[in-house]
Amino acid sequence: MKNIIKIGLVSACVGLSLISCQSDLTSLNDDPKHPSVLPSENLLGTALYQASYYMDNPNVNFNNYRFFTQQWAETQYPDETQYNLITRNQPRNHFNRMYVYSLNNLKQAKANLKNEVETDDIRANKLATLEIEEIFIWENLVDTYGDIPYSEAFLPDEIITPKYDDAKTIYLDLVKRINDVIATVKPSVKGYTGDLVYSGDMTKWVKFANSIKLRLGMNLADVDPALSKTIVESAIAGGVISSEAEAYKFKYDGNTFSNPVFDNLVASNRNDFIPSEIVVNTMKNLSDPRMDVWFTKVSGVYKGGVFGELNDPYTNFSQLGDYFRSPTTASNLLSYAEVAFLKAEAAARNYSVGGTAEQLYATAVTASMTENGVSATAAAAYLVTNPYNAANWKQSIGVQAWIAMFNKGFASWNFTRRLDNPVLINPPKSNLSSVPYRMPYSDQEYVLNGANVNAAASKIGGDKATTKLFWDKF
């Protein structure tokens, strides 16, 4: 069972040695009586689960995206809302989950697929699925940390200590990879029918790929407007997610896989997470009907927790409602509403995306309302009282996207960093000098890959959560 055990060994290593373990260890794994190669579909399933679960996980030990955007507060242990990213090693934990448990499995799946019996068209689609998912994870990593190991990663026989690549160079390569892989897809043929996102529907995988490209392009808007416009318009022309049925959602069955929010709110019996007063008060002021879906009331009113403070008992505050407490709720990591808000922002920047900013703003708000079970009548009334404001479009789109991306932490963080709206105030007891703009590098990297991580830290202006990414210009 050589390959199965090899994966176990890789997962047992630490830091970037996870992607650079020496191949001579694998000689210990040979079992001539029971040879086995794990099917690429199984490896894809593991990668999809690990990436989706841990990008979406609200656990204080992992990505902390929901605290970076100040939409969730804590009642018992406020370290995370005070931006303590050291005690629980969140930078290390997210880094390892994405590299080892996600990317590593996709790399192995690509290798194993070569030896599987398939028609040329199905093989091409399966390889495209693996490639698009890999690009998705790279996008998460580069937008979480900035410069990261990329071109020299996963070359254990050649490079043990991979260099950190320039983030913009990675961006451009990801766009190229998206263009290249889309050209290989056979839309009329299935890919992996067992994939837990699109069930092998390659038309949806292509729309997802173009939507990643759209997100990459929009992040370049302030640092390279001309390139941003070219990438975004190309993505729209190629076809992006155009309905909630096409959104990137990892499906949980509630048994083998459970939604990570359910695991942290219900299964763990953790009475700590509550909506912050920042999001509750903002939505109150806008008479937002999604509050009735998302939050409970206390003595007939909505009451959020003070962000970054040790709050009163859990029962004294509004809590996250039943909408978030199902084990089978899918992790919606690139929604139709997000794509619509990206298009609205692109139109506000005078890109050609098939509609005006006002039209696309209304589409985006309505998409979020529909996704969250709000009636069309209530959504229309909300738009009347909260119309698009062209004179202050960054605030108009930024605040509405921030609300719509509630419980979609990574997407919300991209909007708040790029549009600087809503304006997030560093809490008084913060461990940082400002709100976080990136995740610091894994502490293990300083032990295992010290020269390269130190060089990367120096290049970006310091390995601090307050150092902005290359595209976060304002």
First CA to last CA: what distance?
A: 52 Å
Question: How many E strands?
Answer: 6
Strand line-up in the sheet with most strands: 1-5
What is the CATH C level class of the largest domain, in words? Mainly Alpha
Keywords: Lipoprotein
Organism: Chryseobacterium kwangjuense
InterPro entries: SusD-like_2, TPR-like_helical_dom_sf
Pfam family, one: SusD-like_2
Briefly say what this structure is:
The chain has 474 residues and is mainly alpha-helical. The protein has helices at residues 2-12, 40-55, 65-68, 90-113, 120-145, 167-182, 202-219, 225-238, 260-267, 277-285, 291-294, 336-348, 357-371, 376-385, 393-404, 409-419, 445-448, 450-460, and strands at residues 72-74, 148-149, 164-165, 248-250, 273-275, 331-334.
What this model shows, in words?
This protein is mainly alpha-helical and 474 residues long. The protein folds into two domains: 39-251 and 330-335 and 408-460, Alpha Horseshoe (Serine Threonine Protein Phosphatase 5, Tetratricopeptide repeat); 260-324, no CATH class. Helices cover 48% and strands 4% of the residues. It has 18 helices and six strands. Strands 1-5 form a two-stranded antiparallel sheet. Helix 2 runs antiparallel to helix 4 and helix 5 (120-145) runs parallel beside helix 7 (202-219). Residues 1-28 have low confidence and may be disordered. Keywords: Lipoprotein. It comes from Chryseobacterium kwangjuense.
